Amino acid sequence: MESLTLTDVEQKYYSDLFIYCDTDNTKKVASNGRALDLFRAAQLPSEVVLQITELCGATRLGHFGRSQFYIALKLIAIAQSGLPLRVESLNSVKDLPLPRFVVGKNEAEARHAALYQDSDSQGLYPASAAAVMPRPPGRGLQNKKGTPSIDFIYLCFQPEPTSPVVSPQQSPPTSPPSWRKHKRQTSGGNVDRPAVVAPTGAVWTHFREPQESTTIRTVASAAMTNEIQRQSSGYDDPWKITDEQRQYYINQFKTIQPDLTGFIPGSAAKEFFTKSKLPILELSHIWELSDFDKDGALTLDEFCAAFHLVVARKNGYDLPEKLPESLMPKLIDLDDSAEGSEQTADVGYSGSPVEVTPSKSPSMPSLNQAWPEMNQSNEQWETFSERSSSSQTLTQFDSNIAPADPDTAIVHPVPIRMTPSKIHMQEMELKRTGSDHNHPTSPLLAEPPELSDEANLPASLKFVAANTVGDGYSSSDSFTSDQEPTTRQRSQSGTSPEALKVVAPPPPPPRPNASHSRSSSLDMNRTFAAAAVAGQPQSSTIAYPPAVPPRPLPTQAEGASGGGAALSTTTSPQQIPQQPNFADFSQFQAFAASEHKLDVQNAQSVEKTSEGAGPLRTVKSDGQAKGSGSGSGSGSGSGPLAPPPKPVRRRLKSEDELRPEDEQHGPQKSNVIAAVLATQPSIPRSVGKDKKAIQASIRRNKETNTVLARLNSELQQQLKDLLEERISLEVQLEQLRPFSHL
Amino acid sequence: MAVCIAVIAKENYPLYIRSVPTQNELKFHYTVHTSLDVVEEKISAVGKSLGDQRELYLGLLYPTEDYKVYGYVTNSKVKFVIVVDSSNTSLRDNEIRSMFRKLHNSFTDVMCNPFHSPGNTIQSKAFDGIVSGMMVQTASTV
To answer: Does the keyword Transport apply (chain B) (predicted)?
Structure first.
């Protein structure tokens, strides 16, 4: 036969048809069977067909070889165009349209034709209607890429792999048949048509399946292919995964890993994807692209991406250099949108629907979550005190029916600190003066923020909590130090309201309550504030919840000479009945008065801390009542004593600001300490009195212990700081006077 | 910055080797091969303190008049060798270390690929990219 020159289009078309007809994969088409059907579909008279057959030499050979087949097809085209059948006309006729084949005979052919025609218009739909002039699959030619087809997926991953799958670029006749066999076996059909993996392969696949398949799967695949092809051929985003595809991928994922949120280990994935018969190099590249987090395992998203890439590859798409955006797992908010380079013009930017919550990298999402949490927690640490204090304040206020005097609330700022603080100093002032409570409160209020920076014993926190304004500030102190006191305070405050109409727990003891026995100091503060503002009687009623007789009260009482005494007296009567044994305070006060200034300081701080303890407060309050006078005296006496040690410590921190506070603190601390110390000796007394009192005193002592321990640690720290400073100063000194050594 | 980067397997055969000036590839191959001796020497020297972490970065293996050779060995005895042109402003140690770190990381990624069998030559494009990134600069500077 003459050599046949075919245009590219014709070549492709013919090869597709040949593959289609080559059911036995023998590179030759039997005269009967598909080829015959095909020819008949050409709607040519049978004699013409015979003539063609003869012309092409098939009669001679008994079968259609490839060349014969091609010739036959060309002759069919010639015949269809009305030209006489001549061998010579094979090559002479130019611009010969492709042979048409009517649908009725052969659906596949018809669809194929239709496909060809519609290829440009992305109509991969089977145009089962009329035969259409098949047009060159320009699309395929241009891109030499088919559309990713689910069929390929099915074909790729049949459980019974037969022959190695050939990459799309390989000649269709060789690869597809075996490949197809693979699929057909599963489908049960005996469609031995070679899968045309080439540009038209997808189409063929698509069309063949419906034709021959009876299984649901193939139908489904056809449908999916349809969808896929429709989408892909639209060039919207070749990498977009359709829902059907995704569903299929998910099902496949389940076969390997039932848990959709789990991983597929690398080995299993390797086996799975090896079934697709892609070369290892390409599979390796696909893996690199799809294993987003590089952990050697695939999550569902990664698996879908990998699967999609395999499918694309099998359909002839080249693998991208980077993972397309639509395939990127939407697990992490990575801004790797740089990826998404596509060979095709259209790059889909819309991510494929992520149906499964990505759990691939639990570490990463959790990391992302962890960080914000950590940050938040950090912030919480910062603000916690604020919040807690406010919450405490609220709590207390709720319990305190009479939150009483706004003044009291305002007045009691603060945090009881073990360390001398402005607040305390101010509180001391407040108590001492007793007259102008408002004034101290303002400085108190102002200062707490500054003082909050200092380390405060928990007790101070408790006090703070009780207070309104100061609370915010004090709470910061408290939280920095310890939470317990606050809780205790809260509880106390809770109890106090019950016990007493007075609101709760002692508002942060104005200064003097260095012991931080919240209740006491707070009560004191409130007491004094109330006294100052509304008059003493009111404050007294309000200030001292029976449950928490503020130990500081006595000290406070000591500090605030006039008001304190009055208040303490007023408060004590209330408390005394409840806790009769508050002789402590008298002793305390006496003790405090007699204490050395350092002791006083310690006592004050201790007292403050112990005040935070709570129960101690009751003791204190009682003590206050009794020792108000002495307390005040001691307070004042301690006042002058306290400052000196405090300034020493203060210098370490904020000298200027603390100076005035120190003085205030000093007396407070001394009072506090004195109160604390006083309460301790008073314990034995209380024993004899009342079980309640005993328990209260025990509690108090425990709190005192805690407070003292904290105070101790604080002082130790301060000592260390001081020593360090001293050393540094000495070094500087030596540097400045090097010659001193000589 | 590097002129040649090589990854050598435990058995001392190259898994990956790439040079910038293609004309002197053989020379670089030879250099890398000879540097293996130095690497072995260093490994065995530190071998005394078995068990505890041996320093992965070996540092300058030996300098010649034209270039310097740096070595890095992983715990699985996979060696990375970087040949740097001496005419370049001498790179700081940190930079070399960071280069090795990057190499090690991308090597790990390659190993994680289930389709890559250890012992095969590295054909990962990502790895190539990283290496090129390290070597392109050389081309620009030189």
So the answer is: yes
